[in-house]
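Lab notebook: predicted structure, single chain.

Context: the supervisor wants predicted structures on file for every construct in the current expression panel, including those that have not yet been purified. This is the next one on the list. No modifications to the sequence; it matches the entry in the shared construct table.
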Amino acid sequence: MHDLSKFQRMMVAMDLTEMDVHIIKYASMIAKCFQIEAVYFFHAADSSLELPDDINEKYGNVIAPVDETLEKEMSAVVAANFVAPEGCTVELEALPGNVTDEVLKYSKMKVADLLLLGRKEKLTGTGLNSRKIAKGCASSVIFVPENPPLEMNKVLISIDYSEHSKMAFEIGIDIQKKSGAKLLSNNVYRVPVGYHKSGKTYDEFAEIMLQNTKDECDRFFKKIELEGVDYDHTYALDDDPHPADKIYRTGAEEGVDLIILGSKGRSSGAAFLIGSVAEKLVMEDNDIPIFLIKKGKENMSFLEALFRL
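Prediction complete. Output recorded below exactly as produced.
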């Protein structure tokens, strides 16, 4: 059974804007709930500083290294907004370079299990290319919106009865044990294209598909240890081409504090792709944190595994 012990090393990507306060406070809550052992706050930025030759000659020797200056700024905001759980180590680092590349390299170097990425809606600043980073990293990802909820009372788990969904639901169970959150699971089903060839109406075929997904649901939950688990399962008919719309709408209507789904990503060398539904959900949603769970450890290289020992 999967549980929160899967997540021991958390990386928090900072962009030195107002968004950092939101993501750091959220990281504090996650570190406590998940019992994280190590947290790495990281920032990457273009370190070039083009100055006239006469300024360089006169003041160049007193200009502080960019990474040192940025780390001081990071340290101040982290100290003001992050409370480390007992036994949790905290590191800060700023490096020059392309943001996406450096975040991916650092997450791999630290063998991060969990990566927190901010998702802006109204705040200024270019921020991070969260979707591109999520596609390229092996770790699970939480997309943190502006003003995220700092407690978990309701958690929605989107399931399609796959092994990835089972993993996501089991992680949800452990979150409930740690936080007391109510679990809501939901399956989005659809009427197949060409249903009219059966001679049945759309509504008639929708009933057939609903019964089919209920049967799948029964088989799915028989594979999971549910003793003591407080959860409700619902179904949603997908009447447009994008299941992500239904997932987000269900989460918004239920007032959930987190949406969890398992990634169906495939390894392609060092790259890990997120599924189309997950990517669309990230684009759709701006105010609910999204927890995208990957089977990163299954794809960990031998050297990375040794590094963790």
